[in-house]
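Notes from hallway chat w/ T.B., transcribed later so I don't forget. T.B. wanted the structure written out for a chain they're using in a teaching module, and asked if we could keep both sequence and structure tokens in one place. Agreed to drop them here.
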Amino acid sequence: MVSKMIEIYCRKNHNTKRGELCSECKELNDYARLRSDKCPFMKTKTFCFDCSVHCYKPEMKEKIRRVMRFSGPRMIFYSPAAAIRHLFEQIKKKFRLKNK
């Protein structure tokens, strides 16, 4: 999911072709994938923002935040099922917190 968001961001902001990434976005994508691969909570959590442990370096955290802010609203056009699932998970989480 995060790779798709980085691809959308790179294509629209750095004018790369579909499926390609500039060097900066490739570095961010590699970093995000590495963090996900090493995450001990990946099996039980839905999204990184739900995690109690934030493992991104501050610089990379800001970059990924920028990517998600840009790409998030556009995901409905590029990956509608994933966008709806994400929205559903957010609503579910808010509902659980409200009923505690």
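Follow-up for T.B.: The chain has a mean pLDDT of 89. Might be a good example for the class.
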